[in-house]
Amino acid sequence: MSKKTAGTFSSQLGFVLAAAGSAVGVGNIWRFPYLAAKDGGGLFLIIYLILVFTFGYTLLASDIAIGRKTQKNSLRAYRLLHPKWNFLGILTFIVPLIIMTYYAVIGGWILRYVAAYCTNEGAACAEADFFPHFISNPASSAAYSIIFLALTVFIVYKGVESGIERCSKIVMPLLLFIVIAIALYSLTLKRSDSDGTVRSGIQGLFFYIKPDLRQLNPKRFLQILLDAMSQLFFSLSVSMGIMITYGSYVKKDVNLNKSIAQIEWFDTAVALLAGLMIIPAIYVFKGMDGMQSGPSLIFVALPQVFASMGKIGLLVAPAFFIMAAFAALTSCISVLETIVANFMELLHTSRKRTCIGVSAFYFPASVIIALGYSLFYVDIPLPNGSIGQLLDLMDYISNSLLMPFIALLSSILIGSIVGYQWIAEEFCHNGCKMARKHVYAFMIRFVTPVVMCILFLQAVGLFNK
């Protein structure tokens, strides 16, 4: 497959916004705030920031450099690193194949709230049974998943520059504006309870940023570390072939040092702002109990917060869920693009024909996952001791099992077999050098393999026995 067929980003800005769009997704808006609340606020933030600029940089730099240097997608790129490690490309390709079965379902959930708040159903969203009733309704949950997937397919069908890049240039600045506006508004909130207790957004801010060292012990610290590390995978779109695919679309004159730094900062800023706009609001209207809402934070607890705001909530709520829909859309686009690009290279077919063929599989697959809370409901025991449904199973296999395993093997391949210089050389264009070469070398050779091994062993349930 020629590069002309695959497409390229027209500029460094186009690449950064598209890659940031992939990274900024449901993980930032939904997962990051509830993990920060669950894990004691500031301590989680400190650990996460350290991981982003060490592990995150290492994994992100590896993926993007592999893509640009090989000019191949993940399915073929690893063969060029080492012929005997081609299986790693296959494993990497399996991850987006699995993720795509359920990502449109989550996007459909968000789209349902957008529709509700933009019509006269906004008040109903605050009812405790609104979300469970929606996802257990076969027709409604399937329909919204199909609509979200159709929009994703249309953008990928249009191509790299005309579809993905153009969408990202519009959506990402708008998303950032909405996040900042709501975050600033959350800090102005104040509420008085019947007993005279006053809670403010500023107090919620201190809960968010102040490290909670109470009841801290080695086991709890390890859990926070693992939560932060799993969030990094979820957030930066690493070890799933996406950044290898996007890297293969990057021209040689693009400065990878600046691009990777911009992606890191953009993604991290949105995650931090997401926590800033959600946690103070939850604190003001639901107190400390609201901080334990877990995965239901934005679908159950947050609509109740919006309802408590009165008329202003009718403006903030649709803005929030529109922003969340944008974030989910850009990430879903990157997952589907990775799948389409790999099949284009594997089958030597055109983008449009490949899009149609791939979507013919994922429309029914998404419907089946959506119906996992109704017609196909089944309790599935997971290795971490929890009970999940079809969506939870797909997410566990892709994010908790395969991604740490791929990162482990990739770090061994680059750090101990091919050599980190192979990656560093790709940064050396137009007089540039790899800015964090020594950090990268130390992380890829000594630290990343150990931590990824621990993550993988935790995922298979070793630490739960």
From TrEMBL:
Q: Which residues cross the membrane?
A: 41-66, 87-111, 141-158, 170-188, 221-244, 265-285, 312-336, 356-376, 396-418, 439-463
Where is the signal peptide, in residue numbers?
none
What are the protein's UniProt keywords? Membrane, Transmembrane, Transmembrane helix, Transport
Q: Which PROSITE patterns match?
A: NA_NEUROTRAN_SYMP_3
InterPro entries per record: Na/ntran_symport, SNS_sf, YocR/YhdH-like
Q: What broad class describes the main subcellular location of this protein?
A: membrane
- Coiled-coil positions are none
List where in the cell it is found: Membrane
Q: Membrane topology type, per the record?
A: Multi-pass membrane protein
Q: What is this protein called?
A: Sodium-dependent transporter
